[in-house]
Design brief:
single chain, mainly beta, 2 helices, elongated
Amino acid sequence: MMRSLLILILFTLLSCENNFESIQDISLKRKFPSGITKNLKLTYTDSAMVKAILYSDLNLDYTNQLFPYSEFPEGIKLILLDDDKQKTIIQSDYAITYNQTKIVNMQGNVVINGPDGSQLQTDQLYWDPELEWLFTEKKFNFKNIDYDISASRLDANKSFSLFNTGKLEGNVTFEDK
């Protein structure tokens, strides 16, 4: 009897294996947010001046990942204010911000309305806040007093005074001097 019990215990110990690596692998593949914020309103100030206000119904904070990011699965509304308090309003159905690169990736019905009445529409737009630069490889439409254009690619500064596009279609107004 004692011999059978000893064999059973020995068999049990030898049949166990260390699954720590498997468990660690599973936990790394599953992404759990370190924070969840509902009805977010985030105000960014510089030298006591409001520069931007971000609104989102839901923010998921994944700063616990190897490549940290914040996700806005229900979209964003971002109001940018210049020194003259002129507003530029950016909206999208979804957005993600990468902490290390600071790049913002906006997707789905991305619309930018400028203080001059200009409007940009696209399905996806990247924003680099450090360089104040916009870019996309998707088709976009841009309208203002002088332009009503569509193209398949855009690289532009935030005021659209410098921009490069792919194949351009539409109307451009210009004056002979």
